[in-house]
Design a protein that fits this description.
mainly alpha
């Protein structure tokens, strides 16, 4: 049994709605935090966030991947209890043991050497197991296609985090420590909610412990753990190397401002797509084979190509103006970083969908090797380009390494799973982008003020011709959006 387009579209709509609302919270917090915190404090915030991401990736022990791949759809009560025991609770227990060992080692080392750590460090350490637990519960919710609950919890937790972080910064102190304290409190509230849900829905039983099932989980998941760690490193190595090579947190802050806003693009363009696509593609591959996966890809690639190219065009032309509009002229140095990395995050999911399939084939070692290569290329290019180009050198290195890895994945996947956009879609997107580029040229010729003025008028001069060209040249797009327009007309009572 395949996945219906209606079901996939419903989950995509919910995840996209959630991510838009999360992005909105980011767009609220971004200008406020970048104005309230100087480059040094913002750099500290980004620096420790990097290590938290790395710690969570390690501490999950691959359980999130095994949960997604081996969830017993349609299983009876005994099978569900075995799943919860061996693929949820035991990996979480292992994560807690690992965390306790690391924490004890840090305390002993500090006592022996007399070297202390900042409050942000200790809050990050305390936060790590709670983030691991919440992440595993959310994975179960996504695998069981409870997209409505995922949407509500994700939005509520993000806005709570926003309120507590900003409240701490405004009322306590304009420092990274205050901001992180607010985030820690929000994580505690979220963990309590997830624990209550797991208590009702995931049962542990000692008699259900199965060493073979645990070994299968680790064999599948551990290469993906290493891949996830390397993926975090790929995103984070730029900040670490900027700090190492420059010795200045302010430089890290300049990069972090642009990269943080670019991650909002990644959240909407990448996470939304794969949260809805990956579970559906996995089921389709198991039940109907590779041809059905390619058919599923074809239904996505036409609108996804148009959306990716359009967003990339807007960000490449107006990325710096968006930074100035949100954070003020003082953060203008971060604009080129955001423009480049935002453009990358707009186009990257398109390439990843085309080459998606290595995990379906259980070629997790190949995925790991690709990520190793990407991190190696990124590190080497950072050593070369950061001294030569400064902050932009780190952005160039991320772009080059990510492009190389995603292209290699397309080439290595089984051709039976590989699917590119059709020729008509590509040509239409290029023609529309050419018209949009004409709008960008006109925007610069008008001599508008950087920031909101150029952003608003330039967005119309670029986006409107691009969209009109797509609608005029591709009747498939018109047919795709016509039911949505009719539904809107019926809701507002527009006569037909």
């Amino acid at each position: 049994m395949g996945t219906s387009p209606t079901g996939l579209g419903r989950h995509y709509l919910r995840y996209s709605t959630a991510n838009v609302l999360v992005m909105l919270a980011g767009l609220v917090s971004f200008p406020l935090l970048t104005r309230l915190l100087d480059n040094t404090q913002y750099g500290i915030l980004g620096y420790y966030e990097t290590w938290v991401l790395m710690a969570v990736a390690i501490a999950k022990l691959g359980a999130q991947h095994s949960i997604q791949r081996f969830y017993p759809h349609g299983g009876d009560e005994a099978r569900m209890r075995s799943f919860a025991t061996n693929l949820f609770y035991l990996p979480m227990l292992g994560s807690l043991v690992l965390w306790a060992f690391v924490g004890a080692a840090v305390v002993v080392h500090g006592y022996a050497t007399g070297e202390g750590h900042s409050p942000v460090y200790w809050m990050a350490l305390v936060m790590t197991p709670m983030l691991v637990y919440s992440g595993l519960v959310e994975t179960v919710l996504r695998v069981t296609e409870q997209s409505r609950m995922v949407m509500l919890v994700r939005v509520a937790s993000r806005w709570l985090q926003l309120a507590l972080m900003l409240g701490a910064v405004l009322l306590v102190q304009h420092t990274a420590a205050a901001a992180y304290g607010g985030r820690l409190l929000a994580v505690v509230v979220g963990t309590v909610f997830f624990a209550a849900w797991a208590y009702r829905n995931l049962s542990f039983a000692r008699r259900a412990v199965d060493a073979g099932e645990v070994r299968q989980s680790f064999a599948f998941g551990m290469p993906l753990v290493a891949t996830e760690i390397l993926a975090v490193a790929l995103v984070s190595i730029d900040r670490i190397m900027l700090r190492s090579l420059s010795g200045d947190f302010a430089v890290v802050g300049i990069y972090s401002v642009g990269a943080a806003l670019a991650m909002q693009v990644h959240m909407f363009m990448n996470l939304t797509v794969f949260e809805s696509f990956t579970p559906a593609a996995t089921r389709v591959y198991v039940t109907d084979g590779a041809a059905a996966v390619r058919a599923l890809k074809r239904t996505m690639l036409m609108p996804m190509t148009y959306a990716s190219v359009g967003v990339a065009l807007l960000l490449s032309c107006l990325g710096t103006d968006l930074i100035i509009a949100l954070s003020g002229q003082g953060k203008a140095a971060s604009g080129p970083v955001f423009a480049l990395m935002g453009t990358m995050h707009s186009l990257l999911p398109l390439v990843l969908i085309c080459g998606f399939g290595l995990v379906l084939e259980k070629r997790t070692n190949t995925v790991l090797l690709l990520m190793c290569g990407a991190v190696l290329v990124n590190t080497l290019l950072n050593w070369w380009w950061i001294p030569a180009f400064g902050v932009m050198g780190a952005a160039y290195a991320t772009l080059a390494s990510s492009a190389a890895s995603s292209t290699a994945a397309c080439l290595l996947v089984d051709p039976a799973l590989r699917q590119f956009p059709d020729r008509r879609t590509l040509l239409t997107a290029l023609a529309a982008a050419a018209l949009g580029a004409g709008g960008a040229w006109a925007t610069h010729r008008l001599g508008l003020n950087p920031g909101w003025q150029r952003l608003m008028l330039g967005g119309m001069l670029i986006g409107v011709p691009y969209l009109l060209a797509l609608l005029a040249l591709d009747p498939r797009l018109r047919a795709l959006i016509r039911p949505t327009l009719k539904a809107v007309e019926q809701r507002v009572g527009v006569p037909g």
